[in-house]
Amino acid sequence: MTSPLTAPASQERWTPRLWGTLLVLCAAMFLDALDVSMVGVALPSIGSELDLSTSTLQWVVSGYILGYGGLLLLGGRTADLLGRRQVFLVALGVFALASLLGGLVDSGPLLIASRFIKGLSAAFTAPAGLSIITTTFAEGPLRNRALSIYTTCAATGFSMGLVLSGLLTEASWRLTMLLPAPIAVVALLAGLKLLPRSEREKDHNGYDIPGAIIGTASMLLLVYTVVQAPEAGWASARTLLSFLAVAVLLTVFVRIERRSPGPLIRLGVLRSGSQLRAQLGAMTFFGSYIGYQFLATLYLQSLLGWSALETALAFLPAGALVALSATKMGAVVDRFGTRRLIPVGFALMVLGYALFLRVSLDPVYAAVILPTMLLIGAACALVFPSLNIQATNGVDDHEQGMVSGLLNTSVQVGGAIFLAVVTAVVTASASEGSSPQAVLDSYRTGLIVVTAIAVAGLLITATGLRTRRTRHPQRTVLVAKSEDVQEERVPVRD
């Protein structure tokens, strides 16, 4: 259902309330990215003050990923059924409380619990926020512009989080945990006034409780298994049994969804070639980036001895490029279409990773690191808005939350899986007591894997270039050489 606030396709200028709605939603996306980037720099200080072992300390990060990645599917469908505005605001309030708790606790388990709760709340705000945009802004240039600005806030939040954490951690790591709380409260108060009211879905066929339970359990177990695999061993009995259990749960989940009159995920949505490419593209793009960011941070701080602030400033050009291009990307998508822009972005990402393979123990920033950061920034500016547009175009309003949750799940699960793979490769190629050059070589091996993941994403998304379009008055028919004939209600280039 669209709200009274919905902007018609012909409206070129946004009202102040439309801008206010978008800013509230952008604030939540900004907070998610800000929180993820800030905690990484603060980990050494957290471990020292709370006397946490390395294995326990990793759960400060993994707890957030577990809650976020494991509950996104449930969060997306809940937004459709219970009302997007209601779900978004409640989850944002929980996020603020968890941020406050995280800054005040004095024990590792409580801190990890607060991180899990924050991840859980983000699993509801992310799909609800995205679906509010897609049901408020009419499909086409208006939505493309809104989604470009919205997704840019993630890169901006991540970049600012790196810089702010470097500054705040000098005073206290607790400030990095507390900072999101007042921002979330301001966004919550603004949202109460500005967000369009949404009704619960009236024509749904009941709540898919078995699907919600099995689907959530399978995602939680998958994320947990992947996060723990590098420590437990990929070939260990625990890891293999966990993956087997995930396979069984997913099989049961698929059977439930195929028979349910009101499924958590309508599996038919994945028959669309553009939808499938968007989901796989999200997995590989974010998975390759998070692996690169992990290795680049280790390289700059552990090998080169750069401070946290210096490392953050090294990454800043990528985020700044994304932020500066925010208002222009909607027009770029309108002109060239997502099916062209996404492979181009992947190509830039592959080139950036390939350039970074040239790093040494005495690099020249302007010649090696800076070009990589600029290429990655350009890739993010092209790909992230395009993925969101491609995934949500042609989808009915009552399924926008479901598709948004599915896309965010692809991002989080892809990040968790590929980061674990990259970590395992680096660990396997490193030897105890290695020289700095040997450590660099192990990082380079991981970077080769990162590059290969990006190449896979490029090849997958490039298949969209083979589609041939025939336009009709009310729909666009896509005919692909390697896919069945599909009809998609997509009035703009995809």
Strand arrangement within the widest β-sheet reads 1-2-3
Q: What's the CATH superfamily, by name? A: MFS general substrate transporter like domains
The share of residues in helices is over 70%
Largest sheet features: 3 strands, antiparallel
CATH class: Mainly Alpha
Classify the beta-strand content into a percent band: under 5%
Radius of gyration: 22 Å
CATH architecture level-2 label:
Up-down Bundle
CATH T-level fold name: Growth Hormone, Chain: A
* Beta strands, count: 3
Number of domains: 1
Keywords: Antibiotic resistance, Cell membrane, Membrane, Transmembrane, Transmembrane helix, Transport
Pfam families: MFS_1 (PF07690)
Protein name: MFS transporter
Membrane topology: Multi-pass membrane protein
Please describe the topology of this protein.
Elements: H1 16-50, H2 54-82, H3 84-104, H4 108-136, H5 141-171, H6 173-178, H7 180-194, H8 209-232, H9 237-259, H10 273-303, H11 308-324, H12 329-336, H13 338-356, H14 365-392, H15 400-429, H16 436-462, E1 468-471, E2 476-479, E3 486-488
Antiparallel strand pairs: 1-2, 2-3
Helix pairs in contact: 1-2, 1-4, 1-5, 1-7, 2-3, 2-4, 2-8, 2-15, 3-4, 3-7, 4-5, 4-15, 5-11, 5-12, 5-14, 8-9, 8-15, 10-13, 10-14, 10-15, 10-16, 11-14, 13-14, 13-16, 15-16
Q: Could you describe the 3D structure shown?
A:
The protein has helices at residues 16-50, 54-82, 84-104, 108-136, 141-171, 173-178, 180-194, 209-232, 237-259, 273-303, 308-324, 329-336, 338-356, 365-392, 400-429, 436-462, and strands at 468-471, 476-479, 486-488. By secondary structure, the protein is mainly α. The chain has a single domain, classed as MFS general substrate transporter like domains (Growth Hormone, Chain: A, Up-down Bundle). Strands 1-2-3 form a three-stranded antiparallel sheet, with no helix packed on it. Strand 2 (476-479) and strand 3 (486-488) form a beta hairpin. The longest helix is centred in the first third of the chain and has 35 residues, at 16-50.
